[in-house]
Design goal:
The chain is built from 17 helices and 24 strands. By secondary structure, it is an alpha/beta fold. Strand 19 and strand 20 form a beta hairpin. Bound molecules: manganese (II) ion.
Length: about 625
């Protein structure tokens, strides 16, 4: 109980103090032997009924009363007795001169971490409303306090919004009773009010302080000792903090990742780490499922189609489920100028964006649209630090219990993107300790690529986890599945190449490099595995092995070309911007890594664009040092 002096309301300054309960005080605020101001609300033969607050009232028996009374009269009383059924009896206190002090209700708060211990008892909690979902029955307010997020069910009428004035973002005080609902705890709401003014400010300050502390990423030793990675670690830590904060604030997270081996090795561990953290923070067992979505992106940049769909889903979720708009996490994707239109689309709404990527970035174009950006090129490193390697550490910063089950993942990521990082040796050794030799890792990488192709726009959560053997329980099935997919992938590549190789055109460039061209539209199967990019890559690999010389391979369709090069100093993004100038009306765009990428153009200008492209390749310098450093992903 809190007592405040309400000043002098007695006849004159007396020595005695009489207390006046605020209207929201309950019997818990009463103390024995203490005089309270009461108001008479009824008179009966055996005494008078008095009110001390909205919910505190009782009888003063006629045997202890002197004089006559009327309804509305004030009387000073103290508690005499409380019956088993809660009925209270009061007796008058004889005071002449007194000062009145008001008593406010003691809202001592029960944090969401102590609900289990208070099942069935009325409690109070204060927090921020992070989601308001209207069900066919009650309205569910998800309230976040310093310890977690709990669903609070308020019932007005079936399907009718309770407390319609309360919105997401409000700081509220909930009075209610924690009850078990299946495996979890939910608070049945008795009262809910928005805090205003100083109360709200104090609560917000308290909540912010707690979030600040709890969002702090955990200090985990990286899986291997790697100086190049150390340069990126502070940035990565910031992303971990941003993601943890996002979870604590109850905001959904949407992950968009490149649909290839490295992209999946990046996205799956982060997804699992976030799901576990969400599970820890939220009482609602469905929260991980509702708050995280992982989706593949076919292009190596954020396509308008994906962005508008993501935005549409986000707005629908806000409408249907009262969710906040999500944070977008781009993985193995998202660092380039090609991402800008999609980002600008989202910028019309409150959707923060974080990027972890290792494609050659255009920081000037994207930086101001991003809330966080990790890319090895921003630290004088390059694509050899793959996104999968970065994100395994990111996942461990979010959930440090993840580790054991991820020890083979960086090696898979590295092999998928053909990283020649000096750390590959350590990563391979780490994987070997878990029973993954290089052949098995290579199979895993092929299998992931194959699965990504057929999954198309689906995330394939459990299937991909079973392939990666993370959060997956059946090792035998994992091995068989990986073997099966890897074998299928290789067979289908062989079939594709059997058809395509006879149509390969060869040319010796003046700079000494071999140029191979293949019309993948007319001389390869379409809409099947492997897609044009991979088909071109496989042809390229065979030619490198065969010749041992610098090789450039161009796989082209009616309006696109895929480029692979080894041993030649290409700068594809630079070539693309030159072609835009040199072939007017060519509609040239594209990019990718420096020596691996893709170009789009208009069909009618194909010959002109490809001829101009070949000329540029002919001018390029031969670089033996680069010869085995080409990343594979496009
Ligand atoms: Mn990659």
């Amino acid at each position: 109980m809190t007592r405040e002096s309400a000043g002098d309301t007695g006849t004159d300054d007396g020595d005695s103090v009489v207390y006046d309960l605020d209207s929201d005080c309950t019997a818990d605020d009463l103390e024995r032997g203490t005089p309270y101001l009461a108001e008479i609300n009824g008179i009966v033969d055996y005494g008078v009924f008095v009110d001390l607050s909205d919910s505190v009232s009782g009888l003063v028996h006629e045997s202890v009363l002197e004089g006559t009374f009327a309804v509305g009269d004030e009387l000073v009383v103290e508690l005499e007795s409380v019956r088993d059924n809660g009925d209270m009896a009061f007796e008058p206190v004889d005071v002449d001169d007194y000062t009145v002090e008001s008593v406010s209700h003691d809202y001592s708060l029960t944090g969401t971490d102590r609900l289990e211990a208070n099942l069935g008892d009325q409690i109070h909690l204060e927090g921020e409303v992070v989601q308001v979902k209207q069900t066919g029955g009650p309205t569910i307010f998800h309230v976040a306090d310093e310890d977690g997020v709990v669903p609070c069910a308020a019932f007005e009428e079936a399907g009718v919004r309770a407390y319609p004035q309360v919105e997401v973002g409000d700081v509220v005080r909930v009075t209610g009773t924690p009850e078990h609902r299946e495996e979890s705890v939910q608070v049945e709401v008795d009262g809910l009010s928005t805090l205003e003014g100083e109360d709200a400010e104090a609560a917000r300050e308290r909540l912010e302080e707690a979030i600040e502390t709890r969002s702090e990423p955990l200090d985990v030793e990286p899986l291997i000792d790697w100086p190049a990675f150390e340069k990126l670690r502070p940035n990565l830590r910031e992303v971990a903090q941003l993601l943890r904060r996002t979870v604590l604030e109850g905001r959904p997270i949407r992950i968009r990742h490149h649909a290839d081996g490295d992209g999946m090795c990046a996205a799956v561990p982060v997804q699992i780490a976030l799901e576990r953290f969400i599970g820890e923070v939220h009482e609602d067992p469905e929260a991980p499922r509702h708050l995280i979505k992982r989706l593949p992106a076919k292009a190596p940049f954020y396509e308008m189609e994906d962005a508008t769909r993501d935005l549409n889903f986000a707005l629908e979720d806000r409408e249907k489920h009262g969710q906040q708009l999500p944070l977008l996490l781009m993985l193995d994707n998202g660092s380039t100028a090609e991402d800008v239109p999609a980002y600008e689309t989202l910028a019309h709404y409150d959707i923060p964006i974080a990027v972890v990527d290792h494609h050659h970035p255009d920081p000037d174009a994207v930086e101001e649209l991003l809330d966080a950006h990790v890319n090895p090129y921003l630290h004088d490193e390059d694509y050899r630090i793959t996104t999968g390697m970065l994100c395994v550490e990111l996942a461990r910063m979010i959930d440090p219990d993840l580790g054991e089950e991820l020890r083979h993942v960086p090696a898979v990521a590295g092999l998928s993107d053909r990283s020649k990082a000096d750390a590959m040796e350590d990563y391979l050794a780490l994987a070997a300790e878990e029973g993954y030799d290089e052949d098995r890792l290579q199979d895993l990488s092929e299998a992931l690529d194959y699965a990504a192709f057929w999954l198309r726009y689906n995330s394939g959560d459990q299937l991909v986890q079973d392939l990666l053997q993370i959060d997956s329980d059946d090792e035998q099935r994992h091995r068989e599945l990986v073997d099966f997919f890897a074998d299928r992938a290789r067979e289908e590549v062989d079939e594709q190449l059997e058809a395509a190789m006879p149509h390969l055109e060869h040319e010796n460039l003046d700079n000494g490099a071999h140029l191979y061209r293949i019309d993948v539209e007319n001389f390869a199967h379409r809409f099947t595995y492997p897609a044009p990019g991979k088909t071109t890559g496989e042809i390229h690999d065979r030619k490198i092995e065969e010749t041992g010389d610098p090789v450039i391979t161009v796989g082209y369709g009616p309006d696109f070309a895929v480029l692979r090069s080894d041993g030649v100093r290409l700068d594809i993004p630079q070539m693309v911007s030159e072609l835009e100038e040199e072939v007017p009306g060519g509609g040239v765009s594209g990019g990718g890594h420096l020596v691996v990428g893709s170009i789009k153009f208009v069909k009618g200008k194909r010959e002109e664009v490809i001829d101009a492209l070949v000329e540029k390749m002919e001018d390029a310098e031969i670089d033996e040092a680069l010869s085995s450093a080409a990343p594979i992903d496009d």
